[in-house]
Design a protein that fits this description.
Structural class: alpha/beta
CATH architecture: 3-Layer(aba) Sandwich
Number of helices: 12
Strand content: 5-15%
Largest sheet: 5 strands, parallel
CATH superfamily: DsrEFH-like
CATH topology: Hypothetical Protein Ychn, Chain: A
Distance between the termini: 28 Å
Number of domains: 1
Order of helices and strands: HHHHHEHEHHHEHHEHE
Length: 223
């Protein structure tokens, strides 16, 4: 990995969407299949993931940016206070978090953070050291300034549904590979393998937000 900081801009992401779609095998989405055709297709992992959204009161947190982990914190707060406010068990509070764009590293285990300098790449600082993070600071929260119960590990254990955008993984792993002289295929393979158990790789983050809303989730922008 080069020592130079890899800068990823929103404009570059948008300009590379078509290329990423082809690389990810998403040409059918780009071609615009009809709703009727989509309804007739066999169950997919994505549709099964959506079907697993439980709870009477549901909310989806759209995280295109890390935003100091606020999407995770708000998810924890909603689940806790929703149970109190509605007078129901926490299992009746359905929470979905969609990690897309610059928030995708939150879904990755520590080894790829260090190997690919993801703290520098995505401008995510360690909440304790304030330096670019070399390990995921949100899977297990160690900062005294953040609530430990909002850690990704604990949210997953409590049934929060978390999806990470495959489109963004494809594009950004390609950018990092190109600027570091590495194989795009191998970098993406590394990133996919680093996704935590319990986190669903979804075709795109925007699709996951749409799907969660179609399943009755209220929308909350968390980035």
């Amino acid at each position: 990995m080069s020592d130079s900081n890899v800068s990823i801009e929103r404009r570059g992401f948008l300009g590379g969407v078509a290329v990423s779609a082809a690389a990810a095998g998403l040409s059918a989405i780009a071609g615009g299949s009809s709703v009727a055709e989509a309804a007739d297709t066999p169950d997919t992992d994505f549709k099964k993931w959506l079907a697993g959204i439980n709870g009477k009161y549901r909310q989806v947190y759209d995280m295109p940016e890390p935003n100091n982990g606020m999407g995770l914190i708000w998810s924890w707060v909603f689940q806790m206070t929703g149970a109190q406010g509605y007078g129901v068990a926490e299992k009746d509070i359905g929470v979905v978090v969609v990690l897309r764009h610059n928030a995708i590293p939150i879904a990755f285990a520590d080894p790829v953070w260090e190997k690919y300098k993801l703290g520098e790449v995505f401008k995510i600082n360690d909440p304790v050291t304030k330096a670019p993070a070399i390990a995921n600071p949100y899977y297990q929260i160690k900062s005294p300034d953040l609530p430990p119960d909002a850690a990704l590990e604990k949210l997953l254990a409590k049934g929060v549904k978390v999806g990470v955008c495959n489109m963004a993984i494809t594009f950004y792993s390609g950018v990092v590979a190109k600027q570091s002289g590495l194989s795009a295929e191998e970098v993406k393979k590394d990133w996919l393998a680093a996704v935590f158990s319990g986190v669903q790789i979804v075709p795109s983050g925007v699709l996951a937000v749409n799907g969660a809303q179609a399943k009755g989730c209220a929308y909350c922008f968390a980035g």
